[in-house]
Amino acid sequence: MKVLVVGAGPAGAATALLLARCGLGVTLVERETSFERVFRGEGLMPLGIDALFEMGLGGVLESIPGRRVESWNIWIDGEEVFIIPEPVEELGERAVRVVSQPALLEKMVEEAGRYPSFSFEGRSRLHDLIHDPGSRVVGAVLQTDETVRERCALTSSSEPTGVSGAHAHGAAA
Ligand SMILES: Cc1cc2nc3c(=O)[nH]c(=O)nc-3n(C[C@H](O)[C@H](O)[C@H](O)COP(=O)(O)OP(=O)(O)OC[C@H]3O[C@@H](n4cnc5c(N)ncnc54)[C@H](O)[C@@H]3O)c2cc1C
Predict the structure, then answer these.
(1) Which residue, by CA, sits nearest to atom 26 of ligand 1?
(2) Which residues form ligand 1's pocket by a CB distance below 6 Å?
(3) What residue spans of the chain are helical by DSSP H?
(4) What integer is the mean pLDDT of 65-91?
(5) Confidence (pTM)
(6) pLDDT exceeding 90 applies to what percent of the chain?
């Protein structure tokens, strides 16, 4: 089965990596030209860090720009009014961090690139989905700059349609 994952945000990059690890043919497309997309925040909470560790990407956190958050210092009208310490000791490697999201995404896609069944296409936008007469998704129309091309490869009606994370879309072919 081949899977097209649309959008190299955290959801799409993680989905593509996990599917590639399962041995599936995966193409990840992203409409932007770089991972410096729209700013999406930099805070990684313990649950997000857990997810990275579960994906075997815990070590990546030490290799990208970022730091642990020791405390939240609240300022009002130029005056520091209180400090909320983070339980850094208690949480250990799961302590809240701020990280460079572009660097994290780049590392995730780089990791997926270790699998020969994976490919990444930047500056490639999902233009439309292709449906069969039964409304099942059987392919996609991608647009790169001025070029519109069809990627339509589903031949078996028994295969399910792939789906990625929250904002990313997927089509299995
Ligand atoms: C201002 C702001 C601050 C935030 N701060 C934090 C924070 O500190 N910590 C935190 O954990 N979360 C934060 N979030 C939430 C976090 O950014 C989202 O939960 C996360 O980005 C969702 O990931 P995603 O992969 O689902 O979607 P996105 O990150 O939106 O990724 C979707 C990707 O799909 C691409 N795309 C969309 N349409 C197409 C198409 N047709 N063809 C090809 N590519 C396409 C987009 O370019 C994008 O790269 C913040 C969000 C915002 C808006």
Answers:
(1) 167
(2) 6-12, 29-32, 37, 40-43, 48, 125-126, 165-168
(3) 10-21, 46-54, 60-63, 88-91, 101-112
(4) 96
(5) 0.86
(6) 72
Residue 172 has pLDDT above 60, yes or no: no
Residue 80 makes CB contacts below 8 A (sequence gap 6+) with: 73, 74
Q: Are 35 and 8 a contacting pair, CB within 8 Å?
A: yes
Which of 39-52 are b and which e, b meaning 16 or more Cβ less than 10 Å from the residue's Cβ? eeeeebeeebbeeb
Burial of 147: CB neighbours in 10 Å, binned 0-12, 13-18, 19+:
exposed
pLDDT band at 152; cut points 50, 70, 90: low
Q: Is the pLDDT of residue 121 over 80?
A: yes
Q: In this structure, how many other beta carbons lie within 10 angstroms of the beta carbon of residue 138? A: 21
Query: Which residue segments constitute the domains of the chain, with CATH numbers given?
Result: 1-38+101-173 (3.50.50.60), 43-99 (no CATH)
> Across residues 142-166, what is the average pLDDT?
57
